[in-house]
Design a protein that fits this description.
26% strand, alpha+beta
Length: 80
């Protein structure tokens, strides 16, 4: 599990120019944010999850504790 820095994309048309990148089981993930502070906050949450020993989901790339439980899944999501 690797978490990389917050990267700024230089472009006039990007509404979310700040990107946080991380890697789970050899696959890189990324998420875009409007401000650098939002990106840094998300990055620190990833580090906190790693320190707590959370397992990461291979499909979403997020810690398992962030995913909704079976009771929280809505009907249309369950059907899919």
């Amino acid at each position: 599990m690797n978490v990389f820095g917050v990267q700024h994309r230089v472009s006039q048309r990007n509404k979310r120019p700040w990107i946080v990148r991380w890697e789970v089981t050899g696959k890189q993930r990324s998420r875009a944010f409007r401000t650098k502070a939002e990106g840094e906050r998300f990055r620190s949450l990833l580090f906190a999850a790693i320190r707590q020993g959370d397992l990461f989901d291979e499909h979403s790339g997020q810690p398992m504790s962030w995913l909704p439980s079976d009771a929280d899944v809505q009907m249309h999501q369950w059907v899919r």
